[in-house]
């Protein structure tokens, strides 16, 4: 399966910009959303292949977004990586239980992101 599109969901413009550069370098077409509500609206129109989601955002946080995404039509399909500064195991377990495929600790670099995307099968090894 050929993954092509990625939605980066983060309230930090700088983090979106850094993530965009990395993900585009891996051959994705990238769109951005500043919060979960914006991301949900986007996904109801076009479901991306991969989502990178921040945890703490205004309007709708990453966890709420993820639960709503997974409950929506076609919402089980995308690979979802949580990008977070959250290190507590119980919080990470909560994200995985909500439907995240994996998580990436911030700050991340291209190598880390690429290996995580390979692990979830979003890019070929």
UniProtKB/TrEMBL annotation:
GO terms for biological process: phosphorelay signal transduction system. SMART domains: REC (SM00448). It holds the Pfam family Response_reg. InterPro entries: CheY-like_superfamily, Sig_transdc_resp-reg_receiver, ST_Response_Regulator. The modification 4-aspartylphosphate is found at residue 54. Gene3D superfamilies: 3.40.50.2300. Residues 5-121 form the Response regulatory domain. Keywords: Phosphoprotein. This is Chemotaxis protein CheY. The lineage of its organism: Bacteria, Pseudomonadati, Pseudomonadota, Alphaproteobacteria, Caulobacterales. The gene is cheY_4.
């Amino acid at each position: 399966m050929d993954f092509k599109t990625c939605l980066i969901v983060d309230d930090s413009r700088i983090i979106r910009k850094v993530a965009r550069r990395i993900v585009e370098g891996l051959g994705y077409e990238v769109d951005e959303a500043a919060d979960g509500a914006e991301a949900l609206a986007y996904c109801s129109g076009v479901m991306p292949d991969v989502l990178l989601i921040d945890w703490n955002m205004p309007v709708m946080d990453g966890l709420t977004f993820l639960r709503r995404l997974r409950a929506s039509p076609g919402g089980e399909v995308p690979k979802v990586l949580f990008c977070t500064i959250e290190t507590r195991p119980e919080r990470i377990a909560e994200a995985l239980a909500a439907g995240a495929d994996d998580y990436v600790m911030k700050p991340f670099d291209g190598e880390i992101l690429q290996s995580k995307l390979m692990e979830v099968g979003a890019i070929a090894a």
